[in-house]
TrEMBL record:
Organism domain of life: Eukaryota
Main localization, broad class: nucleus
SET domain segment(s): 83-200
Residues passing through the membrane, by range: none
Protein's name in the database: Histone-lysine N-methyltransferase ASHH1
Length: 490
């Protein structure tokens, strides 16, 4: 049997997202965007080229509504107008995708297809994949509540690897009312060059994956630029062959020095942008033309490829797009309540618009200074705990109230400190126009907010209980003289 066929990744090939938890949206007529293009046979770009209003807003034209009719060029996702690509086996990074034709800057390369699942399901799966020991991650964030999981089903887009200096990028497009993720060329890519984009990988814990992109400015590890990673202590697992530096040849992203040929050498010498394989002799030098015969193959539709039992074994990290990120997950560290973070490729953000400080994270920093989580509401009153305690006869009751007040004050200052600690991360996200912050940051924030709320509730209920149910001091206070119990201050 052909050894390469044996290694065929087990997944179901699709070129349309598969919606697992809901139906594909049906575009309403009033939501259809109609451009103003007029087809001119002498100008091919006139039929929804770069100047098309829909193209400019990353929206595909709707068939039957576009003034250019069947010559409309702005239906690339719908018509699967992908660039020609080829799958090949990398050294150390699993499978990858190479350009099988010259690709132009800005060209749509391929859609990142997979199963569209809820964020909750993504977390569940991420945890399951982790448990199964899957090495590669394929879950990316689609929007605030959904992710795309290309683990079991996907397009060839699932094989595109990460590079710190990539030749591609991800972009979101509105296609008939649904957001879809495409991979686009950042610049001209020659035939034979490996395709790669920046996963914007967000690391939340767990294994650290050595980045083997080989770019000059490689950050070293997937997610190394993310805050969680930077704060963590570096731990290397020596026995992990896959990530052992000595054993892995270096790979340079195609962007560093675009080449049309791939070469493999038997020495540690790098040739062009790609790396050597130590197990080959000099006779084994391969160049791109041969690569296609030797190690590259085209993935065929499921019905033509014999699939073994589809027991997908996993993934540890995940990838994503432009304004999306791949995420690592750590079921213990980031989700102390036993929730695994879905690999979010961040992306993005997987859309958790936690409210931090006074405004949502996506609001600009010019917003007013943080006020310790307190809403500036003129009618809001604060309970004067000391005054309330002073009304009571029982020492025990007084102490109970004062203790609660102390806990509440601690929780409030804890929240204030946390804000100062995480402010750089919040600001970073704002700068990047992210609409959410990393889950680890948000989790900490939520925990601190909950502590404060609980402490406030405990204090108020303790005051109410004691004022209502225990004896007041015999000696009337000033307030009592006025015949009112004044517990609230302005
Ligand atoms: C979406 S998959 C890409 C396809 C994958 N290479 C495969 O064989 O299926 C993402 C995974 O590929 C690996 N990977 C991608 N880029 C890498 C890089 N620059 N360095 C190391 N591993 C990488 C990581 O294991 C990552 O979780």
């Amino acid at each position: 049997m052909d050894p390469h066929v044996e290694e065929l990744p087990q997944y179901i090939h699709i070129n349309q997202n598969d919606f697992l938890t809901r139906r594909h949206k049906k575009q309403k007529e009033e939501d259809i965007a109609i451009c103003e293009c007029k087809h001119n046979a002498n100008d091919p770009d006139s039929a929804c080229g770069d100047g098309c209003l829909n193209v400019l807003t990353s929206t595909e034209c709707t068939p039957g509504y576009c003034p250019c009719g069947i010559v409309c060029k702005n239906q690339k996702f719908q018509k699967c107008e992908y660039a020609k690509t080829k799958l090949f086996k990398t050294e150390g990074r699993g499978w990858g995708l190479v350009a099988d034709e010259n690709i132009k800057a800005g060209q749509f390369v391929i859609e990142y297809c997979g199963e569209v699942i809820s964020w909750k399901e993504a977390k569940r799966r991420s945890q399951a994949y982790e448990t199964q020991g899957l090495k590669d991650a394929f879950i990316i964030c689609l929007n605030a509540s959904e992710s795309i999981d290309a683990t079991r089903k996907g397009s060839l887009g699932r094989f595109i690897n990460h590079s710190c200096q990539p030749n591609c990028e991800t972009r979101k497009w509105n296609v008939l009312g649904e957001i879809r993720v495409g991979i686009f060329a950042k610049h001209d890519i020659p035939i034979g060059a490996e395709l790669a984009y920046d996963y914007n990988f967000e690391w939340f814990g767990g294994a650290k994956v050595r980045c083997l992109c080989g770019a000059l400015k490689c950050s070293g590890f997937l997610g190394a630029k993310s805050r969680g990673f930077q704060e963590d202590t570096y731990l290397w697992e020596d026995d992990d062959d896959r990530y052992s530096v000595e054993k892995i040849p270096v790979y340079d992203s195609a962007e560093d020095e675009p080449v049309s040929k791939l070469r493999y050498l038997n020495s540690e010498t790098y040739v062009n942008n790609f790396v050597g394989r130590t197990e080959h002799s000099m006779d084994d030098i391969l160049i791109a033309e041969n690569l296609s015969e030797a190690t590259a193959f085209n993935v065929q539709p499921l019905d033509s490829v014999q699939m073994m039992d589809l027991d997908v074994k996993t993934i540890r990290t995940e990838v994503v797009s432009n304004d999306m990120k791949l995420y690592t997950h750590d079921t213990e560290q980031d989700f102390p309540q036993k929730n695994a973070i879905v690999s979010r490729i961040r992306s993005t953000t997987a859309g958790r618009n936690y409210q931090i400080g006074r405004g949502s994270i996506s609001t600009k920093r010019s917003s007013k200074a943080y006020n310790g989580g307190r809403l500036k509401n003129p009618i809001q009153k604060k309970v004067d705990a000391k005054f309330a305690a002073g009304l009571l006869a029982s020492k025990e009751a007084q102490e109970e109230i004062l203790k609660c007040e102390e806990i509440k004050n601690d929780a409030t200052s804890g929240l204030d400190c946390l804000y100062n600690e995480i402010r750089p991360a919040i600001e970073e996200h704002e700068r990047d126009s992210q609409d959410s912050v990393s889950t680890s940051v948000a989790e900490k924030w939520i925990e601190a907010c909950c502590l404060k709320l609980k402490a406030e509730f405990d204090l108020y209920s303790t005051i109410v209980k004691n004022v209502a149910c225990t004896a007041h001091k015999a000696k009337p206070t000033e307030v009592d003289n006025d015949n009112e119990i004044k517990l609230l201050t302005g």
